[in-house]
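Team,

Forwarding the record for the chain on the shared tracking sheet. I've put the sequence and predicted structure together so nobody has to dig through attachments.
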Amino acid sequence: MVAQRSVAFLVSFLMLSLVLRSRSCEALKIISVTNGGTEGSWGLLEICPEGSRAIGYQTQNDLLDVILYDKTAMNSIRLFCNDTEGTSITSTLGHTGTWELRQNCPPGEALSSFRLRVEPYDPELSDNTSVNSIQFNCTDGTLLNFNGNAAGIWGDFSADQCDVTGICGLETRVMPLGTLSDNTALNNVGFICC
């Protein structure tokens, strides 16, 4: 009987937590792009701890390598929050690549807008890459311009922005590693405005 009550309490607590989280997320503004890829599934929404903002980022990239046939370009994005713990958030990660150097806004500033370079899906190509690179602007206008991939020349940039408060969360759309011969990994990303 005690075990049943404990399980019932735990289930009720978890359901209440999900309801409260979904209500708080409804009030958040999500910025996105019009050129994002459509392959894969959206991962979990990750948000910086309350009161903090993203002040830097890092990308995981499948670097240009002529030996491998299937290139995936940019695979993952990590945001760094300005809370006292130095939290980093990622949503769904791609399956391969090297983490590049962290890019940071000037002290006291936060990420506020982004541009995403995406190669549109083309069934005629044997190796689509989808997201190739990303750029961010900080709240003071500083441009963090780091190509996510040495081969990040394919596709066009699209843009959206938060107001002056900045970005505090993200969710990514990633094609999981599978049996397909043409995997694109990171296909799209949405960012949460504080």
